[in-house]
Amino acid sequence: MRLRITHDTRYRYEPPVLTAVHMTHLTPPPTRCQDRLDARLQVHPQPASITESLDIYRNVRTFFEIASPHDELLVRASSLVETHAPDPVGSTLAWDAVRDSFVYHVGAEWHPAAEFIYPSHYVHPGEVFADYARPSFPPGRPLIDAARELMQRVHQDFTYASRSTEINTPAAEALAQRRGVCQDFSHVMLACLRSLGLPARYVSGYLLTQPPPGQPRLGAAMRRTPGWPCSCPTWPRSTAATAGTTSTRPTTATAGARRARTSCAWPWAATTPTSRPCAASSTAARATSWMWALQWNPATPPRWPRRPSSNRPLPLTMSLYDKLQQLGIQLPPVSTPAAAYVPFVQTGKLVFLSGHIARHEGKPWVGKLGHNITTEEGAQAARSVAIDLLGTLHAAVGDLNRVKRIVKVMSLVNSTPDYTEQHLVTNGCSELLGEVFGERGQHARSAFGVAQIPMEACVEIELIAEIE
Q1: Which bin fits 188, alpha (ψ -120 to 50), beta or left (φ > 0)?
Q2: Domain at 95-262, CATH class
Q3: Per CATH, the architecture of 2-84+272-312 is what?
Q4: How far apart are CA 352 and CA 393, in angstroms?
Q5: pTM score, whole prediction
Q6: How far is the C-alpha of 78 from the C-alpha of 416, rounded, in Å?
Q7: What CATH number has the domain spanning 344-467?
Q8: Residue 399 has pLDDT above 50, yes or no
Q9: Cβ contacts of residue 26 below 8 Å, gap of 6+?
Protein backbone atom coordinates (compact mmCIF):
# COMPACT_ATOMS: atom_id res chain seq x y z
CA MET A 1 0.00 0.00 0.00
CA ARG A 2 1.33 3.43 -0.92
CA LEU A 3 0.70 6.17 1.65
CA ARG A 4 1.33 9.88 1.28
CA ILE A 5 1.67 11.51 4.68
CA THR A 6 1.55 15.21 5.50
CA HIS A 7 2.21 16.24 9.11
CA ASP A 8 1.87 19.90 10.12
CA THR A 9 3.03 21.16 13.52
CA ARG A 10 2.45 24.80 14.43
CA TYR A 11 3.76 26.63 17.51
CA ARG A 12 2.64 30.10 18.55
CA TYR A 13 4.65 32.07 21.10
CA GLU A 14 3.90 35.00 23.37
CA PRO A 15 6.24 36.84 23.77
CA PRO A 16 8.27 36.01 20.65
CA VAL A 17 11.13 33.53 20.84
CA LEU A 18 14.55 35.04 20.18
CA THR A 19 16.35 31.84 19.15
CA ALA A 20 15.32 28.19 19.15
CA VAL A 21 16.68 24.72 18.53
CA HIS A 22 14.32 21.83 17.73
CA MET A 23 14.63 18.12 17.12
CA THR A 24 12.13 16.12 15.06
CA HIS A 25 11.43 12.43 14.43
CA LEU A 26 9.30 12.86 11.31
CA THR A 27 11.17 10.94 8.60
CA PRO A 28 9.98 7.35 8.12
CA PRO A 29 12.98 5.02 8.11
CA PRO A 30 13.30 2.14 5.63
CA THR A 31 12.34 -1.10 7.38
CA ARG A 32 11.38 -4.61 6.39
CA CYS A 33 7.73 -3.47 6.34
CA GLN A 34 8.09 -0.13 4.53
CA ASP A 35 10.09 1.57 1.79
CA ARG A 36 10.56 5.33 1.95
CA LEU A 37 10.05 6.74 -1.55
CA ASP A 38 10.25 10.42 -0.63
CA ALA A 39 10.63 12.55 2.48
CA ARG A 40 10.80 16.33 2.78
CA LEU A 41 10.88 18.68 5.77
CA GLN A 42 9.94 22.36 5.50
CA VAL A 43 10.38 24.83 8.32
CA HIS A 44 9.15 28.42 8.56
CA PRO A 45 10.86 30.71 9.51
CA GLN A 46 13.85 29.60 7.48
CA PRO A 47 16.33 27.77 9.75
CA ALA A 48 19.88 29.09 10.11
CA SER A 49 21.07 25.49 10.06
CA ILE A 50 19.55 22.03 9.64
CA THR A 51 21.25 18.66 10.12
CA GLU A 52 20.16 15.02 10.03
CA SER A 53 21.55 11.98 11.83
CA LEU A 54 20.59 8.60 13.29
CA ASP A 55 20.07 8.13 17.01
CA ILE A 56 20.98 5.00 18.98
CA TYR A 57 17.73 3.34 17.89
CA ARG A 58 18.47 4.05 14.20
CA ASN A 59 15.68 6.63 14.07
CA VAL A 60 16.15 9.53 11.65
CA ARG A 61 16.32 12.72 13.69
CA THR A 62 16.57 16.23 12.32
CA PHE A 63 17.93 19.20 14.25
CA PHE A 64 17.26 22.75 13.12
CA GLU A 65 18.12 26.13 14.58
CA ILE A 66 16.21 29.39 14.10
CA ALA A 67 18.43 32.34 14.93
CA SER A 68 15.93 35.20 14.48
CA PRO A 69 13.01 36.34 16.67
CA HIS A 70 9.67 34.71 15.74
CA ASP A 71 6.22 34.36 17.22
CA GLU A 72 5.12 31.38 15.12
CA LEU A 73 6.75 28.19 13.89
CA LEU A 74 5.43 25.87 11.18
CA VAL A 75 7.03 22.46 10.55
CA ARG A 76 5.65 20.47 7.63
CA ALA A 77 6.85 16.91 7.00
CA SER A 78 5.78 15.26 3.75
CA SER A 79 6.51 11.61 3.08
CA LEU A 80 5.67 8.97 0.49
CA VAL A 81 5.90 5.43 1.87
CA GLU A 82 5.27 2.01 0.33
CA THR A 83 4.16 -0.34 3.12
CA HIS A 84 4.03 -4.11 3.20
CA ALA A 85 2.11 -6.43 5.48
CA PRO A 86 4.56 -8.00 7.94
CA ASP A 87 5.54 -11.58 7.34
CA PRO A 88 3.73 -14.06 9.60
CA VAL A 89 5.72 -14.72 12.76
CA GLY A 90 5.87 -18.50 13.00
CA SER A 91 7.86 -18.74 16.23
CA THR A 92 6.42 -20.98 18.96
CA LEU A 93 9.02 -19.93 21.53
CA ALA A 94 7.38 -19.84 24.96
CA TRP A 95 7.13 -16.50 26.66
CA ASP A 96 8.67 -17.81 29.91
CA ALA A 97 11.67 -19.15 27.97
CA VAL A 98 12.21 -15.67 26.58
CA ARG A 99 11.83 -14.17 30.05
CA ASP A 100 14.38 -16.59 31.51
CA SER A 101 16.89 -15.83 28.75
CA PHE A 102 17.03 -12.23 29.95
CA VAL A 103 17.70 -13.11 33.59
CA TYR A 104 21.23 -12.02 34.41
CA HIS A 105 23.82 -14.59 35.41
CA VAL A 106 27.59 -14.58 35.48
CA GLY A 107 29.05 -14.92 32.01
CA ALA A 108 25.76 -14.17 30.26
CA GLU A 109 26.09 -12.46 26.90
CA TRP A 110 24.54 -8.97 26.93
CA HIS A 111 21.78 -8.40 24.40
CA PRO A 112 20.65 -4.94 23.18
CA ALA A 113 16.99 -5.81 23.80
CA ALA A 114 17.67 -6.04 27.54
CA GLU A 115 17.25 -2.29 28.00
CA PHE A 116 13.60 -2.58 26.98
CA ILE A 117 12.84 -4.51 30.20
CA TYR A 118 13.66 -1.65 32.56
CA PRO A 119 11.33 1.14 33.79
CA SER A 120 11.09 4.33 31.75
CA HIS A 121 9.58 7.71 32.56
CA TYR A 122 5.91 6.76 32.06
CA VAL A 123 6.22 3.00 32.53
CA HIS A 124 6.87 1.64 36.03
CA PRO A 125 6.44 -2.15 36.05
CA GLY A 126 4.72 -3.63 39.09
CA GLU A 127 2.60 -6.47 40.38
CA VAL A 128 -0.68 -4.78 39.43
CA PHE A 129 0.32 -4.93 35.76
CA ALA A 130 1.62 -8.48 36.04
CA ASP A 131 -1.71 -9.56 37.61
CA TYR A 132 -3.64 -8.04 34.70
CA ALA A 133 -1.40 -9.72 32.11
CA ARG A 134 -1.09 -13.22 33.64
CA PRO A 135 -4.39 -14.67 32.28
CA SER A 136 -2.89 -14.30 28.78
CA PHE A 137 0.47 -15.79 29.77
CA PRO A 138 0.03 -19.34 31.11
CA PRO A 139 3.27 -21.36 31.38
CA GLY A 140 4.60 -22.54 28.04
CA ARG A 141 2.34 -20.44 25.82
CA PRO A 142 4.02 -19.01 22.69
CA LEU A 143 5.04 -15.41 23.30
CA ILE A 144 3.49 -14.06 20.10
CA ASP A 145 0.09 -15.59 20.84
CA ALA A 146 0.12 -14.34 24.43
CA ALA A 147 1.11 -10.79 23.45
CA ARG A 148 -1.63 -10.61 20.81
CA GLU A 149 -4.26 -11.81 23.28
CA LEU A 150 -3.12 -9.18 25.77
CA MET A 151 -3.48 -6.57 23.03
CA GLN A 152 -7.04 -7.72 22.32
CA ARG A 153 -7.91 -7.60 26.01
CA VAL A 154 -6.64 -4.04 26.40
CA HIS A 155 -8.60 -3.09 23.29
CA GLN A 156 -11.80 -4.66 24.68
CA ASP A 157 -11.45 -3.73 28.36
CA PHE A 158 -10.47 -0.09 27.96
CA THR A 159 -12.61 2.81 26.73
CA TYR A 160 -11.08 5.39 24.43
CA ALA A 161 -12.09 8.74 25.96
CA SER A 162 -10.51 11.98 24.77
CA ARG A 163 -9.33 14.33 27.54
CA SER A 164 -9.87 11.65 30.19
CA THR A 165 -6.17 11.70 31.03
CA GLU A 166 -3.23 14.09 30.90
CA ILE A 167 0.09 13.59 29.20
CA ASN A 168 1.65 12.68 32.57
CA THR A 169 -1.15 10.41 33.86
CA PRO A 170 0.48 7.34 35.47
CA ALA A 171 -0.10 4.03 33.70
CA ALA A 172 -1.41 2.56 36.96
CA GLU A 173 -4.19 5.17 37.01
CA ALA A 174 -5.16 4.40 33.40
CA LEU A 175 -5.22 0.70 34.27
CA ALA A 176 -7.42 1.30 37.33
CA GLN A 177 -10.01 3.39 35.50
CA ARG A 178 -9.87 1.33 32.28
CA ARG A 179 -10.05 4.44 30.10
CA GLY A 180 -7.71 6.83 28.36
CA VAL A 181 -6.20 7.51 24.93
CA CYS A 182 -3.62 5.77 22.77
CA GLN A 183 -0.63 6.88 24.84
CA ASP A 184 -2.25 5.41 27.99
CA PHE A 185 -2.95 2.10 26.29
CA SER A 186 0.67 1.94 25.13
CA HIS A 187 1.94 2.73 28.63
CA VAL A 188 -0.26 -0.01 30.10
CA MET A 189 0.72 -2.56 27.47
CA LEU A 190 4.44 -1.93 27.97
CA ALA A 191 4.10 -2.00 31.76
CA CYS A 192 2.36 -5.38 31.54
CA LEU A 193 5.04 -6.91 29.32
CA ARG A 194 7.96 -5.46 31.27
CA SER A 195 6.37 -6.57 34.57
CA LEU A 196 6.60 -10.14 33.27
CA GLY A 197 10.28 -9.67 32.41
CA LEU A 198 9.71 -9.27 28.67
CA PRO A 199 11.42 -6.55 26.60
CA ALA A 200 8.97 -4.09 25.01
CA ARG A 201 9.49 -0.73 23.31
CA TYR A 202 7.48 2.13 21.85
CA VAL A 203 6.95 2.58 18.13
CA SER A 204 5.59 5.86 16.78
CA GLY A 205 3.95 6.39 13.41
CA TYR A 206 0.79 6.89 11.39
CA LEU A 207 -2.27 4.73 10.90
CA LEU A 208 -4.69 4.86 7.97
CA THR A 209 -8.14 4.71 9.54
CA GLN A 210 -11.00 2.59 8.26
CA PRO A 211 -14.33 4.47 8.63
CA PRO A 212 -17.62 2.71 9.32
CA PRO A 213 -19.64 1.77 6.20
CA GLY A 214 -21.22 4.81 4.57
CA GLN A 215 -19.07 7.34 6.41
CA PRO A 216 -16.15 9.28 4.89
CA ARG A 217 -12.66 8.80 6.20
CA LEU A 218 -11.70 11.69 8.46
CA GLY A 219 -9.48 14.34 6.92
CA ALA A 220 -7.39 14.45 10.08
CA ALA A 221 -7.04 10.70 10.24
CA MET A 222 -5.25 10.84 13.55
CA ARG A 223 -3.50 13.06 15.98
CA ARG A 224 -0.12 12.42 17.47
CA THR A 225 0.15 8.87 18.80
CA PRO A 226 3.14 7.80 20.86
CA GLY A 227 3.03 4.39 19.29
CA TRP A 228 2.24 0.81 19.87
CA PRO A 229 4.28 -1.51 22.04
CA CYS A 230 6.53 -3.94 20.25
CA SER A 231 7.48 -7.16 21.96
CA CYS A 232 11.25 -7.29 21.72
CA PRO A 233 12.96 -6.39 18.44
CA THR A 234 14.96 -9.65 18.37
CA TRP A 235 15.73 -12.41 20.80
CA PRO A 236 19.06 -13.62 22.23
CA ARG A 237 20.96 -16.11 20.17
CA SER A 238 21.29 -18.29 23.25
CA THR A 239 17.63 -19.25 23.00
CA ALA A 240 16.53 -22.31 21.09
CA ALA A 241 14.71 -20.28 18.43
CA THR A 242 14.05 -16.72 17.37
CA ALA A 243 10.77 -15.14 18.36
CA GLY A 244 11.16 -12.37 15.80
CA THR A 245 9.57 -8.95 15.82
CA THR A 246 5.88 -8.29 16.28
CA SER A 247 3.84 -5.16 16.90
CA THR A 248 0.72 -4.84 19.01
CA ARG A 249 -1.63 -1.85 18.78
CA PRO A 250 -4.10 -1.94 21.68
CA THR A 251 -5.89 1.23 20.56
CA THR A 252 -7.05 -0.32 17.27
CA ALA A 253 -6.18 -4.02 17.65
CA THR A 254 -5.10 -4.03 14.00
CA ALA A 255 -2.11 -5.12 11.99
CA GLY A 256 -1.00 -5.07 8.38
CA ALA A 257 0.11 -2.50 5.83
CA ARG A 258 -2.15 0.38 6.89
CA ARG A 259 0.48 2.07 9.02
CA ALA A 260 3.83 3.82 8.59
CA ARG A 261 6.53 3.97 11.24
CA THR A 262 8.65 7.00 12.09
CA SER A 263 10.56 5.99 15.24
CA CYS A 264 10.99 3.47 18.04
CA ALA A 265 12.58 3.77 21.47
CA TRP A 266 12.72 2.60 25.08
CA PRO A 267 11.38 5.88 26.63
CA TRP A 268 8.24 7.48 25.23
CA ALA A 269 9.83 10.95 25.04
CA ALA A 270 12.39 9.68 22.53
CA THR A 271 9.63 9.24 19.93
CA THR A 272 8.38 12.84 20.13
CA PRO A 273 7.57 14.02 16.57
CA THR A 274 8.70 17.64 17.19
CA SER A 275 10.36 18.88 20.36
CA ARG A 276 9.47 22.12 22.06
CA PRO A 277 12.11 24.83 21.64
CA CYS A 278 15.19 25.41 23.74
CA ALA A 279 14.83 29.19 23.51
CA ALA A 280 16.76 32.19 24.71
CA SER A 281 13.63 33.86 26.07
CA SER A 282 10.88 32.74 28.41
CA THR A 283 7.79 31.87 26.43
CA ALA A 284 4.33 30.43 26.66
CA ALA A 285 3.82 28.17 23.66
CA ARG A 286 0.73 26.57 22.19
CA ALA A 287 1.12 23.78 19.65
CA THR A 288 -1.26 22.04 17.29
CA SER A 289 -0.31 18.95 15.34
CA TRP A 290 -2.29 17.38 12.49
CA MET A 291 -1.52 14.32 10.41
CA TRP A 292 -2.91 12.57 7.39
CA ALA A 293 -2.18 9.08 6.14
CA LEU A 294 -3.65 8.79 2.66
CA GLN A 295 -4.06 5.68 0.55
CA TRP A 296 -2.57 6.06 -2.93
CA ASN A 297 -5.32 4.84 -5.25
CA PRO A 298 -5.26 6.44 -8.72
CA ALA A 299 -8.61 4.91 -9.70
CA THR A 300 -10.60 6.39 -6.81
CA PRO A 301 -8.71 9.22 -5.09
CA PRO A 302 -10.15 9.90 -1.63
CA ARG A 303 -12.19 13.05 -1.03
CA TRP A 304 -11.36 14.64 2.26
CA PRO A 305 -13.72 16.93 4.21
CA ARG A 306 -12.26 20.12 5.58
CA ARG A 307 -11.89 20.24 9.32
CA PRO A 308 -13.37 23.35 10.98
CA SER A 309 -10.35 25.46 11.93
CA SER A 310 -9.39 28.98 11.00
CA ASN A 311 -5.75 27.93 10.65
CA ARG A 312 -6.16 24.55 8.99
CA PRO A 313 -3.76 23.44 6.31
CA LEU A 314 -5.62 22.55 3.15
CA PRO A 315 -6.61 18.89 2.80
CA LEU A 316 -4.32 16.84 0.61
CA THR A 317 -5.94 15.26 -2.41
CA MET A 318 -4.19 12.89 -4.71
CA SER A 319 -5.20 14.21 -8.12
CA LEU A 320 -2.08 16.20 -9.03
CA TYR A 321 0.28 13.56 -7.71
CA ASP A 322 -1.71 10.91 -9.58
CA LYS A 323 -1.19 12.89 -12.79
CA LEU A 324 2.52 13.14 -12.12
CA GLN A 325 2.69 9.40 -11.56
CA GLN A 326 0.73 8.69 -14.72
CA LEU A 327 3.10 10.96 -16.64
CA GLY A 328 6.06 9.06 -15.22
CA ILE A 329 7.31 12.15 -13.39
CA GLN A 330 9.16 11.97 -10.09
CA LEU A 331 9.61 15.35 -8.44
CA PRO A 332 13.30 16.20 -8.00
CA PRO A 333 14.76 17.86 -4.90
CA VAL A 334 15.44 21.57 -4.95
CA SER A 335 18.72 22.37 -6.68
CA THR A 336 21.37 24.25 -4.73
CA PRO A 337 21.56 27.87 -5.98
CA ALA A 338 24.66 28.52 -8.07
CA ALA A 339 25.01 32.13 -6.88
CA ALA A 340 23.75 34.61 -4.26
CA TYR A 341 19.99 33.97 -4.41
CA VAL A 342 17.32 31.64 -3.03
CA PRO A 343 15.26 29.11 -5.03
CA PHE A 344 11.92 30.73 -4.18
CA VAL A 345 10.32 33.61 -2.30
CA GLN A 346 6.74 33.83 -1.07
CA THR A 347 5.03 37.15 -0.51
CA GLY A 348 1.37 37.03 0.38
CA LYS A 349 -0.26 34.39 -1.79
CA LEU A 350 2.29 34.65 -4.58
CA VAL A 351 5.29 32.33 -4.87
CA PHE A 352 8.15 33.47 -7.11
CA LEU A 353 10.48 30.73 -8.37
CA SER A 354 13.97 31.74 -9.48
CA GLY A 355 15.13 30.87 -12.97
CA HIS A 356 15.85 27.16 -13.48
CA ILE A 357 18.20 26.11 -16.26
CA ALA A 358 17.62 23.00 -18.35
CA ARG A 359 19.49 19.92 -17.15
CA HIS A 360 20.16 16.55 -18.73
CA GLU A 361 21.37 13.64 -16.61
CA GLY A 362 22.13 16.02 -13.78
CA LYS A 363 24.30 18.39 -15.80
CA PRO A 364 23.45 21.66 -17.59
CA TRP A 365 21.79 20.99 -20.95
CA VAL A 366 24.33 22.85 -23.05
CA GLY A 367 23.58 24.20 -26.51
CA LYS A 368 22.26 27.03 -28.66
CA LEU A 369 18.99 26.98 -30.57
CA GLY A 370 19.54 27.65 -34.25
CA HIS A 371 23.08 26.25 -34.03
CA ASN A 372 23.35 22.79 -32.48
CA ILE A 373 19.93 22.18 -30.90
CA THR A 374 16.64 21.79 -32.79
CA THR A 375 13.33 23.33 -31.76
CA GLU A 376 12.02 19.89 -30.77
CA GLU A 377 15.05 19.28 -28.54
CA GLY A 378 14.61 22.74 -27.07
CA ALA A 379 10.98 21.94 -26.20
CA GLN A 380 12.14 18.77 -24.45
CA ALA A 381 14.65 20.85 -22.50
CA ALA A 382 11.89 23.30 -21.51
CA ARG A 383 9.75 20.37 -20.36
CA SER A 384 12.60 19.16 -18.15
CA VAL A 385 12.81 22.66 -16.65
CA ALA A 386 9.09 22.53 -15.88
CA ILE A 387 9.62 19.30 -13.91
CA ASP A 388 12.39 20.97 -11.88
CA LEU A 389 10.11 23.97 -11.30
CA LEU A 390 7.39 21.65 -9.99
CA GLY A 391 9.86 20.09 -7.57
CA THR A 392 10.79 23.52 -6.24
CA LEU A 393 7.16 24.62 -6.08
CA HIS A 394 6.31 21.46 -4.12
CA ALA A 395 9.10 22.28 -1.67
CA ALA A 396 7.90 25.88 -1.39
CA VAL A 397 4.23 25.17 -0.64
CA GLY A 398 4.33 21.60 0.70
CA ASP A 399 1.43 20.39 -1.42
CA LEU A 400 0.90 21.19 -5.10
CA ASN A 401 -2.86 21.00 -4.55
CA ARG A 402 -2.53 24.37 -2.79
CA VAL A 403 -1.64 25.98 -6.12
CA LYS A 404 -4.60 28.12 -7.20
CA ARG A 405 -3.08 29.29 -10.48
CA ILE A 406 0.14 29.37 -12.45
CA VAL A 407 0.28 33.13 -12.99
CA LYS A 408 3.29 33.83 -15.19
CA VAL A 409 6.11 31.99 -16.96
CA MET A 410 9.16 33.76 -18.37
CA SER A 411 11.51 31.85 -20.66
CA LEU A 412 15.02 32.69 -21.82
CA VAL A 413 16.19 30.71 -24.86
CA ASN A 414 19.88 30.60 -25.73
CA SER A 415 19.67 31.18 -29.48
CA THR A 416 21.33 32.61 -32.52
CA PRO A 417 20.31 36.09 -33.77
CA ASP A 418 18.29 34.67 -36.66
CA TYR A 419 16.39 32.05 -34.57
CA THR A 420 12.70 32.97 -34.13
CA GLU A 421 10.98 29.95 -32.52
CA GLN A 422 11.57 30.72 -28.86
CA HIS A 423 7.80 30.54 -28.30
CA LEU A 424 7.68 26.96 -29.61
CA VAL A 425 10.56 25.95 -27.34
CA THR A 426 8.76 27.41 -24.32
CA ASN A 427 5.66 25.40 -25.20
CA GLY A 428 7.46 22.38 -23.75
CA CYS A 429 7.11 23.98 -20.31
CA SER A 430 3.65 25.45 -20.80
CA GLU A 431 2.12 22.23 -22.10
CA LEU A 432 3.39 20.21 -19.14
CA LEU A 433 1.95 22.75 -16.69
CA GLY A 434 -1.37 22.42 -18.51
CA GLU A 435 -1.24 18.62 -18.31
CA VAL A 436 -0.62 18.71 -14.57
CA PHE A 437 -2.79 21.64 -13.43
CA GLY A 438 -5.47 21.76 -16.14
CA GLU A 439 -7.14 25.17 -16.30
CA ARG A 440 -5.11 26.30 -13.29
CA GLY A 441 -2.01 25.79 -15.41
CA GLN A 442 -3.02 28.34 -18.06
CA HIS A 443 -0.73 31.32 -17.59
CA ALA A 444 0.60 34.57 -18.98
CA ARG A 445 3.99 34.16 -20.63
CA SER A 446 7.03 35.83 -22.14
CA ALA A 447 9.69 34.12 -24.23
CA PHE A 448 12.97 35.82 -25.15
CA GLY A 449 15.94 34.90 -27.26
CA VAL A 450 19.24 35.69 -25.51
CA ALA A 451 22.87 35.50 -26.52
CA GLN A 452 23.95 33.35 -23.56
CA ILE A 453 22.66 31.69 -20.37
CA PRO A 454 24.72 30.75 -17.30
CA MET A 455 26.73 27.54 -17.72
CA GLU A 456 25.87 27.66 -21.46
CA ALA A 457 22.47 26.08 -20.80
CA CYS A 458 20.03 26.15 -23.71
CA VAL A 459 16.94 27.25 -21.74
CA GLU A 460 16.17 29.04 -18.45
CA ILE A 461 12.63 29.52 -17.10
CA GLU A 462 11.20 31.25 -14.06
CA LEU A 463 7.65 30.99 -12.72
CA ILE A 464 5.11 32.81 -10.55
CA ALA A 465 2.28 30.88 -8.85
CA GLU A 466 -0.66 31.86 -6.68
CA ILE A 467 -1.57 29.63 -3.75
CA GLU A 468 -4.72 29.32 -1.70
Answers
A1: alpha
A2: alpha beta
A3: Sandwich (2.60)
A4: 9
A5: 0.55
A6: 43
A7: 3.30.1330.40
A8: yes
A9: 7, 41, 62, 75, 77, 79, 262, 273, 274
